[in-house]
Here is the input.
Amino acid sequence: MASDCIFCRIAAGEIPAKLVREDENVVAFRDIDPKAPTHVVVIPRRHIASVNDLEPGDAALLGEIFLAAKEIAREEGIAASGYRLVVNTGRDGGQSVDHIHLHLLGGRRHSWPPG
Ligand code: DGP
Here is the structure.
């Protein structure tokens, strides 16, 4: 755990958040500044700063994150209508929290290309 990382502290229960799912390796919570009717952030408990810091051994963990997103989409009732999964990376990618995370956005139509 990185003690100065907001998402590590949410995963540890030190900062309150609206959790929607948690297990041994993955935690999901509602975004504090939602950009869609459903906006959930899915993170690994383990601190990984960004996609740039992934290693081959993280492949299974990434699979768990995507499977959690799939289950949450079903529970939120947006699996059939569709949703967007986003991983912002670095400055130009719009990443503001340096703990890798998957945004699950749904409940409205998303345009393409993104802004
Ligand atoms: P990104 O810009 O891709 O790094 O997304 C970070 C997201 O995290 C952003 O949409 C806002 C959200 N966020 C930041 N701080 C908190 C927090 O303390 N609680 C919750 N629930 N979400 C947060």
Notes: The CA atoms of residues 84 and 113 lie 12 Å apart.
